[in-house]
Amino acid sequence: MGWNGVQPASEPPLVGRHPEREAIGRLLDTVRDGLGGALVLTGEPGIGKTRLLGYAAARAAELRVVRLTAVEPETGLGFGALYRLLRPFLNRTGRLPGPQRAALEAALGLVSGPSADRCLVGQATLSLLSEAAAEQPLLILLDDAQWLDRESADALAFTARRLHADSLGLIIAVRDGLGDNALFDALSVHTVTGLPEPEAKALLAIGDRRVDPAVADRIVAGAGGNPLALLELAGTLAAEQLSGVAPLPDPLPVGRLLEGHFRRLVRALPPATGDLLLLLAAAPPDDTETVWRAAGRLGLAARAVEPAVAAGILAPDTPSDFRHPLIRSTVYAAAEPGERRRAHAALAAACDPVTDADRRAWHRAEAAEGVADGVADDLEAASERARARGGYSQQALFLSRAADFTGDPDRRAERLLDAAQAHLMSGDAPAAGAALERAGADIRDPVMRTRELRMRATTQMFGLAVADVPAMLMDAVTRLGAQDPRLTSELLREALHAALVAHDAVRGTTPAEVGAAVVAARREPDSAAGGRDLLMEGLARRVAEGYEHGAPVLRAALDGLLGGRGIEGAHSPFAVMLSMACDDLWDVRAGRELAGRLAAADRDAGALYALSITLLVEARYDLLDGRFTAAEARYAESDDIAAVTGFPGGGDINRLHLLALTGREAELRAAVRRTAGMRSTGHGVLQLLAQHALTLFELGRGHYRQALQHASAVFEQDPPACGNLVLPLLVEAGVRTGDRDGVARALRRLEDRAPLAGTPWALGTLALGRALVAQGDDAEKLYQEAVELLGQGPLALERARARLLFGEWLRRRKRRFDARRQLRAAYEGFGAFGAAPYAERARTELLATGETARRRTEETRFDLTPRERQVAAMAAAGLTNGEIATRLFVTPSTVEFHLNKVFRKLGITSRRQIPRRIGEPDPAGGS
Questions:
Q1: Mean model confidence pLDDT for the chain
Q2: Residue 855 and residue 837: Cα distance in Å, rounded?
Q3: Which key words are in the record (predicted)?
């Protein structure tokens, strides 16, 4: 640090900071031990974050250290900081998995290609740095992270959150109160505060200064322990003032006046030096060639840096670097608007219009005033390049700036709508709403107004507020009229999806009205999307005209999709609609196959939000087949995607049926309460799914009256999502409680619908419902029919339930031997699945037949942590370490780390042994 405006030969020793040093030391030891981790240092300007980064670099023996300082003027240039960080490692991109390499190279502008998914860019960043760290442990030091562009911040936060067994450490310094620092909240955050009084005085005493104790007290109190403020203040005071002979200025130029102190230092420099400093502040630290070309255009000589070095503004060893990041930001912020425009104009002129077109466009924008259509056109062109790289927040920023310079109202509105769409793609719904508000006053065209309404509805859906969306989209359809039939069809499909999700909580319309509108607007299905179009029509007819009208169309839709027509390009919300259709037709085979194909398509396209929904659908079919461990792995993967993409969702509300079937009552009831809280935002069908889950839970415990209450609520609403699936549960609960009227109504609906569906699941469910009310030989034949039909599909859970009910019926008729056979099969099945309430119910029935049955205990697989269970389930499914790493957004070394722990805990030595130990089938066909 400097005294009297002069830069010393070296920095003073680090005083105090023992907790911070210990945290840094632990992280460095972790990296040396082959693991990884991240540490965030946050605090006010000048508090010592940069100095601590220097301390970390000095202590990082045997580690490769890479430093990066983000700069304010570059905040709008997407992936700019990431490119500067990764530049030393880009020769390794050929070692990345194909999708990751393509995404990263597209994001950094190294190749042209489709838009880069930001999560794939994050995973590529993690993989690239981890691969480099495998050769030599790596420490990355990131300063002034509040100035990172959004895309770079996303990628680095993603990397920091996923570090585990990677020999890679990341220390991030970020200033309080600036930028969106929430991305780093999930990391280990250490708030750097002012030095305690003894340490602050020790810092003042370093060097040849003689400081009077009373003066030291005043300086320390005024600086609040801020090290930079202490040293800068001591450097500005005369020796007489420090010794107490001359009075101190009042107030002291510290605390909030620290930046003012730097402003005064800069303004005291020659004008040419000030101009050069502004150029340096407006460009990244490693872009000195552009800075010197711009300096030449302004007639600035190289010797203009000398006064800044002498004053301690620039570092003596690297005179293009500011001594402290705060000085850079102060120089830029303190400049007059005209001075900044002049500097940016020079930098724009110095940028290559081909190889550096985006930075040139940005500098031109910063240099312009008023309407400037040429600048706006350049910014729009830059936004297209940003979109192609997957830099959606950068695209939005370029478009918003382009709108600032656009004179034509229609063109301005169009650019703002495009900006809103880009904000939605980046996951920033509030920013999208702000862009829509700006666009609203300029919109006159009906198609453009329709587009605005559609995006407003999308922002509502993004925030999980569904209740008003169908009415908003129906309004958009009305405004559009007959101008664009294809757009009308798309709007109605989106309205139907929202209406089915909202169900009875929808406001301003009803699902039946939306369904009728979809049917009325029916067009000949597009050959490429025929199955999807038919499926939407079938659901529309189901809610508008009744099951008998919807089921045949849904059957044709599923047959078409199974035949290969329409699954390609079908992303969210199609998985939700697919699940509803398959459940409504009791078609588990179509559901499993189509959900699997859709998940593969989502993965190939990098459509992670869509994939997170599809995984929930796949988990549903895993539960039906008794594969609870596989279901939990899919739920966890969906949660991972929600976490890394920033999209809302995830958590226990997605696990309602798993919690019910495994008997985790406290978690189940907490999740049900959360679904009730979401009803006000329009998630009516979620609450009905919760009632269905509670029905399963109470039946497992033999609490039939409670089960009847929950099942009746679903029966009355009759949603496609679970309206049919609840029918056999309602019959069972009604028979056990003597509710003859309820049993008759449920069975009548089951008899009407199951033959229309015609699947083994539907007909087996019908046989089971009839068996529950039949007598004598008829009942036995129906139970046998149900067990046989339900055995024809991947429905191990449903078959076990049928056997339980059959065994209970046999036991009540004193046929103990026959009852034991069915009850034993049910008990073993439920126990293997992990369906604890049903296993206990089957065990109790077995005891009543006179057979001994031990209460099942928790198996070894449940000693695994959630992440270990997830890795084990994926390994059991036959995935390689690389494939598991891609799905979990980690590195193969981290997967290997978890697998080693799985092997130790399960007492196995081979991946082939995992399926049996965790209750999953061997993918190779073994037992």
A1: 87
A2: 11
A3: ATP-binding, Nucleotide-binding
780 vs 783: CA distance, rounded Å: 5
Q: pLDDT of 308-325, one tens digit each?
A: 888 888 877 776 778 777
Measure the CA–CA gap between 147 and 159, rounded to whole angstroms.
18
Residue type, 636: A
CA nearest 891: which of 126, 157, 167? 126
Burial of 112 (0-12, 13-18, 19+ CB in 10 A): exposed
- Packing angle between helix 530-545 and helix 511-520, nearest 10 degrees? 130
Question: Pairing relation of β-strands 188-191 and 168-175?
Answer: unpaired
pTM, full prediction: 0.78
DSSP 306-370: HHHHHTTSB-SSSTTSBSSHHHHHHHHHHS-HHHHHHHHHHHHHHS-TTTTHHHHHHHHHHH--S
User: Quick check: 542 and 554 in contact, CB under 8 A?
Assistant: yes
| Alpha-carbon gap, residue 336 to 332, rounded angstroms | 9
Nearest Cα residue to 152 out of 445, 386, 485: 386
Which single residue is written with the structure tokens 């034949």? Answer: 781
For residue 139, give the H/E element and its range: strand 138-143
**Which class would CATH give 861-918?**
mainly alpha
pLDDT of residue 860: 45
Distance CA 516, CA 145 (A): 52
**Closest residue by Cα to residue 82 from 31, 111, 121, 28:** 121
Helical H runs in 718-739? 727-737
Contact between residue 235 and residue 3 where contact means Cβ atoms under 8 Å apart: yes
Sequence letter at residue 21: R
Report the 10 Å Cβ neighbour count for 87. Answer: 12
Separation in Å, CA 853 to CA 128, 844, 849, 856: 54, 8, 10, 9
Instruction: For CATH 3.40.50.300, list the domain ranges present in the chain.
Output: 18-191
Query: In this structure, which CATH number among 3.40.50.300, 3.40.640.10, 3.90.190.20, 3.30.930.10 belongs to the domain 18-191?
Result: 3.40.50.300
- Helix %, strand %, coil % for the chain, to 5? 70, 5, 30
Tokens 């069908």 locate to 685
Grouping H, G, I as helix, E, B as strand and the rest as coil, residue 834 is coil
Find, among 828, 860, 580, 591, the residue nearest to 718 by Cα: 580
Q: What is the DSSP string of 623-642?
A: HHTT-HHHHHHHHHHHHHHH
**Residues, the chain, total?**
927
| pLDDT of res. 656 | 96
Comparing C-alpha atoms, which of 538, 529, 617 is closest to residue 568?
529
Closest of 285, 412, 279, 401 to residue 348, by C-alpha? 279
Residues 6 or more apart whose CB falls under 8 angstroms from that of 210 comprise 239, 242, 243
Q: Which of 864, 866, 848, 877 is nearest to 903 (CA)?
A: 864
In this structure, what DSSP letter does residue 508 have? S
311 pairs with which residues across the strands? none
* Span of 64-68, 456-460, 488-492, 859-863 with lowest mean pLDDT: 859-863
